[in-house]
Specification:
The complex is a heterodimer of chains A (197) and B (577).
Chain A: H1 16-45, E1 56-59, E2 62-66, H2 103-119, E3 143-144, H3 146-150, H4 153-160, H5 164-174, E4 185-186, H6 187-196
Helix pairs in contact in A: 5-6
Chain B: H1 5-43, H2 50-64, H3 74-86, H4 88-97, H5 114-125, H6 135-138, H7 141-169, H8 181-205, E1 217-220, E2 226-229, H9 234-243, H10 264-288, H11 292-319, H12 322-325, H13 344-357, H14 372-384, H15 393-413, E3 418-419, E4 422-423, H16 426-452, H17 454-457, H18 465-480, H19 495-525, H20 541-576
Antiparallel strand pairs in B: 1-2, 3-4
Classes of the chains: A mainly alpha (197), B mainly alpha (577).
Chain lengths: 197, 577
């Protein structure tokens, strides 16, 4: 049933009569949406395993990072993360925002390919996956693809004196395949597991 | 290699394609019951949340001292709407310019400059949420909580109220008594926005999103670097940011940031929310007016346009950058610059088109680094402005398009224009024309001005050549349509961008709302004459095609010359290289 027609007709209202309710409504909105709503969620957050502070990863009893926040791995003994436009400084975030035809950008990519080849002798250029030489959107991508991990295996096997087979097994163990989503490997988890190998 | 990568890749792409189909189907499957629910909420019918919110609603009305059952004219409705909305201007301005000494600022964030505060304020109170600052370093927790949270709820509620009063006006009867603004506004927040975002925030919490008031965390990484990780009350922020199509990121990287979008599952939910309320409100129109076929016609036209934008964009992204293929590396994952591994190319390209056809503007990848064709498709989505569109504003924009189509269609067959049993007169058509041309006018004049002052604008561009031009036109089209995404390479925190975008957002937001409510209000006041055999039927595929062609013609005539200088030229520069 349509209700408005059952009620008294509108009185002529002046603009002033709208301001008082609007001011009060502002207060109501702040109370509901900026106090009650977030506090309820904070309360529930306390019951979540991480306590709502973000999920951390520890190594030898020390917090070495957040599961979801990528960190810089440039040391040859570790699996590298993807390039980052903000150099994995998680007090900021963002991509390079370079366009696909930007010559500076293409030169950067070429430089990363050359660097990779220098640090990974014996790897063919055509085996370097594009995601390992392009920067992520957040600059904090915690993952690499399967191909980006396997292409680094020969280098790490040599530097750490491990068989390649063992490293492949490690990658398979860390690898995640969410329903519908692409396959991903958390670099921090992989490197922590690598240290414990 | 370890095992055949070509086979694996084919399987990957299939699964990811399936992933986006699931997102779309789930969105439609949720929208229909939600639309029915929204129609009930606005009609004042019984819903299952009445028990909880009815007492709260009564309490609010008593505190306000208004009789929410007292009808309003469309003019009173607009005055109430604008007062509630614009009161936030001085308040937001004050907080942003004084956040340095206000409490809840553990990371010692500085106050905003006046021009940045002006732009941010306008963009927050209008649901645009275009950001010329980066959340980690530009906003204190106090501003995020006491400004962003309420405005995330207020801005969609305001447009939903405008939409609801248009629904109300289109009920076949002659009256100037429309439903009370406060009634729609309070119900939008209590019955629709709060419960859905609360439930979603809990889901997000269990996916590892932080919800804390502690400041940045400093520690030593595995390879020995010192690292700072910014945190915050993100779970509650994120759910309403996506649901209300606000789209303003807690962090600079928005939903590409792992804390704002930690995994593929949260990505699916957030992506569903891109389109959920715009599509649900279309179905709500059908249920409210009892014209379900009309709702399906609108949904069909929107979806057709959406798919036409989606296919070229996905194709270009999956193929990747030919300039990188030439370098001889394995380019099989497509264009991964500015994209995250956990979403992949397919879901990122899909998201970018949903973000720009709905007016959400939250990004999970950086649009600036998309291939020219996909960047062009994103811009087209923003330029058309009614393919799903914003919460409420999507339906309102489409309502304007329908009035235009009714007028032109009736002229073609020599009948007088009529929509839902009401004669469409001269005044309504005039308003329709102005609103239709407003968005191209604002976007293009803005870009033309920016090009006329190269000393102010060219140093802010992040990319040379055609792509730099794309950055400018994207910025203004996004401002005028209240989308809020951007080619974020643009160094837009300068007085020029802050002030021009601020004004464009302001006009681009309120004039269409005022226009649509005015047209509906005028139609409501007219005598109901019903449909005759000669009236144009507005709920069939033929009329849908007419609306679609009109939208296409208007957009094409207005924007294609500009697109030719931006993304199209850039595309051909790659091809000919």
């Amino acid at each position: 049933m349509y209700i408005a027609e059952m009620y008294i007709p509108a009185k002529k209202k002046k603009v002033k009569t709208f301001i008082i309710p609007s001011l009060k409504l502002t207060a109501v909105l702040i109370l509901l949406c900026a106090v009650i709503y977030p506090l309820l969620v904070v309360g529930i957050a306390k019951t979540v395993p991480s306590g709502g502070d973000g999920v951390t990863v520890s190594y030898k009893g020390q917090v070495v990072g957040y599961k979801d926040i990528g960190q810089k791995f440039t040391d040859d003994k570790y699996f590298w993360s993807r390039p980052s436009a903000v150099d994995y400084n998680a007090s900021g975030s963002g991509g390079s925002n370079k366009g696909p035809t930007n010559q500076d950008y293409l030169a950067d990519v070429q430089k990363r390919i050359d660097t990779f080849l220098v640090h990974n002798p014996g790897i063919k250029k055509s085996d370097i996956p594009v995601e390992l030489v392009t920067a992520s959107g957040s600059g904090l991508d915690p993952d690499i693809s399967f191909a980006s991990a396997t292409v680094q295996v020969p280098r790490i096997a040599r530097l750490r004196n491990k068989t390649e087979k063992k490293l492949y097994e490690l990658i398979d163990k860390i690898k995640e395949r969410p329903l519908f989503g692409p396959e991903k490997i958390n670099v921090l988890k992989l490197n922590v597991a690598l240290n414990m190998l | 290699m370890y095992y055949s990568s070509a086979f694996k890749l084919g399987k990957d792409v299939c699964m990811e394609m399936l992933g986006i189909i699931v997102i779309f189907v789930a969105m439609v499957a949720l929208s229909i019951p939600l639309g029915k629910y929204i129609a009930k909420v606005y009609a004042g019918e019984v819903t299952f949340l009445d028990r909880i919110f009815h007492p709260v609603e009564k309490l609010i009305y008593r505190f306000l001292g208004v009789d929410a059952m007292c009808p309003m004219t469309w003019k009173q409705h607009l005055v109430a709407l604008l007062t509630v909305n614009l009161l936030w201007f001085p308040l937001t301005m004050f907080v942003l310019m004084n956040q340095n000494w206000l409490p809840l600022n553990p990371d010692h964030i500085a106050a905003m400059s006046p021009d940045l505060a002006f732009h941010s304020t306008i963009s927050f109170i209008t649901n645009c949420f275009q950001q010329h600052y980066s959340g980690e370093t530009g906003m204190s927790y106090f501003s995020q909580i006491f400004i962003m949270f309420p405005l995330f709820f207020l801005t969609p509620a305001v447009t939903m109220s405008a939409m609801a009063v248009v629904f109300n006006a289109l009920k076949g009867r002659a009256t100037d008594k429309l439903r009370n603004f406060y009634y729609y506004y309070v119900r939008s927040i209590l019955w629709i926005l709060l419960p859905i975002s609360f439930v979603t925030a809990i889901i997000f919490l269990f996916n590892g999103m932080p919800m804390t008031l502690q400041g940045a965390h400093t520690f030593t990484t595995l390879q020995g670097d010192t690292m700072y990780v910014a945190r915050g009350p993100i779970a509650a922020f994120e759910s309403i940011k996506m649901l209300g199509l606000d789209g303003g990121g807690f962090f600079g990287a928005n939903s590409a940031h792992p804390f704002e979008n930690p995994n593929f599952f949260t990505n699916m939910i957030e992506n569903i929310f891109h389109m959920l309320l715009p599509v649900a409100t279309v179905f709500a129109l059908g249920f409210y007016l009892n014209r379900k076929k009309l709702a399906w016609m609108i949904f069909g036209v929107m979806t057709l346009g959406f798919i036409l934008l989606l296919i070229p964009a996905m194709n270009a992204e999956l193929k990747g950058n030919p300039a990188i293929t030439q370098m001889g590396i394995n380019n099989s994952m497509g264009n991964m610059e500015g994209k995250e591994i956990r979403f992949g190319t397919t879901a990122s390209a899909f998201w970018s088109i949903t973000a720009t056809s709905s007016m959400n503007g939250a990004v999970n990848c950086m649009h600036d680094s998309f291939m020219p064709i996909s960047g062009g498709m994103q811009m087209l989505g923003i330029m058309v402005n009614t393919l799903y569109g914003g919460v409420g504003t999507g339906v309102l924009g489409f309502f304007i398009a329908i009035i235009l189509a009714v007028f032109i269609g009736s002229l073609m067959i020599g009948r007088s224009a009529q929509f839902l049993g009401k004669k469409v007169g001269m005044r309504e058509i005039k308003i329709t024309m102005i609103i239709t041309l407003l968005h191209p006018f604002l976007s293009l004049v803005g870009t033309a001005l920016a090009c006329s002052f190269p000393t102010l604008t060219t140093p802010t561009l992040n990319n040379p050549g055609f792509h730099g031009f794309s950055e400018m036109i994207y910025e203004y089209a996004s401002a005028s349509s209240a989308d809020g995404s951007g080619f974020e390479g643009l160094g837009d925190n300068t007085p020029w961008w802050n002030i021009t975008c601020g004004f464009i957002i302001l006009f681009g937001r309120y004039l269409p709302i005022i226009g649509a409510v005015a047209i509906a209000g005028m139609l409501a006041g007219k005598q109901y004459i019903g449909d005759s055999a000669g009236t144009i039927k507005t709920d069939n595929a033929t009329f849908g095609l007419l609306v679609f062609s009109l939208i296409f013609v208007v957009t094409a005539l207005a924007f294609f010359p500009a697109l030719a200088v931006g993304p199209i030229a850039e595309h051909f520069s790659i091809v000919t290289h």
